[in-house]
Structure formats: C-alpha cells, structure tokens
Amino acid sequence: MTEIQIQFDVPAEMRDGTVLRADVYRPAGTGPWPVLLSRLPYGKQTSMLAMMLDPLAAARRGFIVVIQDTRGRFASEGEWEPWTYEERDGYDTVRWAAALPGSSGSVGMIGGSYFGNTQWMAALSKPPELKAIAPMITWSDPEDGLWTRGGAIELGISAPWTLMMGADALMRRHATDLEGLASGITGLVHDLDGLAGGGYAELPAGRFPAFARHDLPELGYERSRREPDWARSCTVTGRHDEVDLPTFQVGGWFDIFAQGTLDNFTAMRRAGRSATLVVGPWTHTNLRNVVGDVNFGFAANSDFMGMRGSLHDMQFDWFRRTIGDGEPLEPDAGKVLLFVMGINQWREETEWPLSRAVERDFHLRADGRLTSEPPSTSEQPDEFTYDPMDPVPTTGGALLLADEFRPGPLDQAAVEAREDVLVFTTDPLAEDTEVTGRVKVILFAATDGPSTDWVARLCDVDEQGVSRNVTDGIVRVRAEIPGEPAEHVVDLWSTSTVFRAGHRIRVQVTSSNFPRWDRNLNTGEPEDNATTARAARQQVFHSSDRPSRIILPVVPA
Question: Does residue 1 surpass a pLDDT of 90?
Fold first, then answer.
C-alpha cells in the first residue's frame, strides 16, 4: 500500500500579506510529483469534496494534492467576499503550489461549482505553472444560472447558499462574544430551516430581508446591480480566448449550471483549445444513477461510467497526460461523452452541439394539442390568471434549493392540474424521437400588466400517462402596451433524451416556478424594492399569424 503524507493548514502568503491555508497530501518519496490544486470556500475537509476529488486516491496515483480554504473562510485569513479575490489569489496560490517540496512545477486544478469557477479565474490570471483545469458543474455567465436566469432572480440557490455560508462568517464576527454567537447562529439556522415554510416568500426578493438581518455577503445579485464592473470577478463568458489550457469539463442534465458547462466547452473549442466534455443525467450534488424519480441504470453512475471506469479515474488519466509524465494530448484532442436519457446509454461524440441534429417545430394548438403542423386558421388564445401570491411550486428540474425541493425528473401531475398551467401534448409517438441539443420556445403572449414572467417546460409522458420534466426555462418581460400580444423567446437550455415510441411530448406554459425563481409581482417595480403584488390575466396565442411553438433539436435515427 502506498504511504501518503498529509500536512494540515500549510500557509501560503498572498501578495497583500494575507495568509491562506491548505491541506497538502503528498505521495511518499522524493518525487517530483505534479500538483492537483482545489480552492474552495466550504472547508478543506468538507464531505462534499469527495464527489469532486478523493485526495487520497489522487495521491496514490502520484499527485501532490493541495486543498485550500479561500480567503476569509475557515483556516484562511482575510475578509469573506464571494468571487472578489479569486483571480489574484488563484494566481498567487498556483505559483506557491508549484514551488512546494517534491513538486514537479506543473499544476492542474480540479473541483466543481464555486471551486470550478476558482479554476477559471486562476486560468484567466495566467500563472505560468498552471497547465490544465478540470471544472465541474460550474457556470459561464453568472446572469445565466447563478444570479439570474432570463432576467428572473435565482432565488432558490441564492437564499440557502448565502445563509449556509453565513455560519463561518458569524463565527468569525463573534469570536470573542459567545452570547452574540449563540444568538446569531440560532437566528441564522431559524431562517435557513424556514425557507421552504415561507421564508422564500419574503419581499423584496432583490434585497432579501434575511441577508440584511444577518449582515451577510450574498451570492452576488445585489452587488452586481450596485457595481456592474464587479461581476467580471466570476464571469467566464467572453474571456475564453484568454485561457490557453486544455480543459476537462463535467456537467449534468439536471445541474443548475448545465448550460454553463456546455457553453464553456463550446467556447474553448471555438478558441481552438483542447477540450473534453462529459455530461451525465446528474444534478448538482448527485452523480449517481437514481436521479429524481428515475433510475437511469447503473451505467449512469459516475463510479462506473458504462464500464469505462470511474469518472475520477478518467480525470486522473487525463491529468497524467496534461501535467504529468503521460503521453501528451494532441493539440485538438478532446472527446465528448454524453448520457442519452430515455435509452439510458452513454454515447461518444466528437462535437457539441451535434451538427446532425435538425431543428423541428412542434406547435401549440387549440384544445391542448402539440402538433408538427402549424395552425392554418385563427385559433382562440388560451387564458389563465397568474397570482404571485399563489405561484406554481417548483417540482423537479435543474435546480439547487433548500433540501425540501428535489432536483431531477419528477411527476408533474400536481403542477399540470393547476388552472394557471397550460398543457400541450402530442399524440403517442410512432417511433423513438431523440432530442439532443438546445431547446427553446417561441411564445406569442400578452399580459394585462406592465411586467410578467413566462415559464416553459418540456416533459416526457410515458405510456401510463405519467408526465416528468425534462428541461425548462423562464423569461422576464416588460409589456410595451399591456394587453398587446408580443413575441418572446424562452431558453430551455439543453438536454439529450429519447422520447420512446408510445410516449408523448408535452409542453407546459405558465408564469412562475417558485421558489426556484423569484416571483414577478406584475407591477413593473424594480426587484430591489417591489413588495406589492397584483394578479395578471395572461393570454397565449397559437394562430397562423402568431405561431407559438417549441423548437426541438431532433437527431435522425
């Protein structure tokens, strides 16, 4: 058995004198060894790290592993400000890690979510020793999945994340005041536990009251509105050309940052970089085979990967070639490995998006029909009332909310029984229909107020009539003239699934998905001070001159 040496809280001094601390896992012997670095704000020994990186397994494979608390978190000094220092601290840490005893001088970075983004920020700072990054389940544009989506606030993740991160902040603030600490933590836990029971509904959503009560640095929505230039501190979109490194990117079809992973991959390929992509049927915190209500088969489990070995081993083999002594990658090397739901199979590709996919329109029609034929005559619009005080509850999807809200594909019966949810369904399919790529809905709609939201969801209805969500999206709109029809595009992001013969394709249209996204109060007031709501009368049109439809990327059999 290979002996592993572990050093705890190893100090690294940043350029401004702040000391960050890391745990270092080192193979026995003199090396030299390549370095795998992970920088995270959740604690160096958090259990969530195991899903992203097993430091002992990596050390046994011949890597020095460095896991560092980011600035202002746990053992590291400094003030906690999400995102602000990650680019400069990433640069300084890479250079420090490359000079550790036994290091070969080559550094790779690995991790997901926040510590997927710390990789991108370090790469953008261009430390010469950084040779490769492997970001998992992370975003590209924070305005497309982190802070907002389609203009709506990502309240579902913002509230629990900010409150959870507040525990360490309060412990630092009240380090010498045990009474204040007890009071602060008690209040914080009360708010965190109470989100699903009504806490999410506090207003205004744009200045969430619980954050102010505890004086906490929030995820970033509020600050990005006050300081637009600051948003660059965690934005990758538009900067990929600056990263001249190979990347190994991992995402999940039901991950809150699913599209960001795909966008990062396509941008790196477009920039001529070596890029590898793996997308499973996974959520943000679950890389196993049972997701939501569906068992996708043991092959879907990241420990198995359809007899390819574990995802960790695939990453370690890739790092051996990019920062170790393995055979170097070809300049244009990189593969795409997609899990196709419905048939529950992994499939190797050479590109994303798939050039062989053909966009196909399915039209919303009268009487709840969804057809490939557009309406040839005028059909009466469908109508419903959207009341922000009785929003459609979040039921599955690519989400990360309080624990009461499960991500993944879930039975939509309760949602589709509501009067404020329109449902459009095809006849049973005569043959398997694969949809792989980006999905969007073109919606011709009207509202009687100054502002509202439109939510669209693609579902798969099985032969027993059970409807389960596949992917969805939202767009926040302002009505130029209340009551006047307008065309809107709802981006449902991407998926890969086969609607089996005998199944039916379904589209839901509504105006809320709460608390995943904050409620539009239909008044037009800014989100940072809107507290008064009004019910809105909504119309969805499907006629020859206003052909509402979903556009599906269908892969020929």
Answer: no
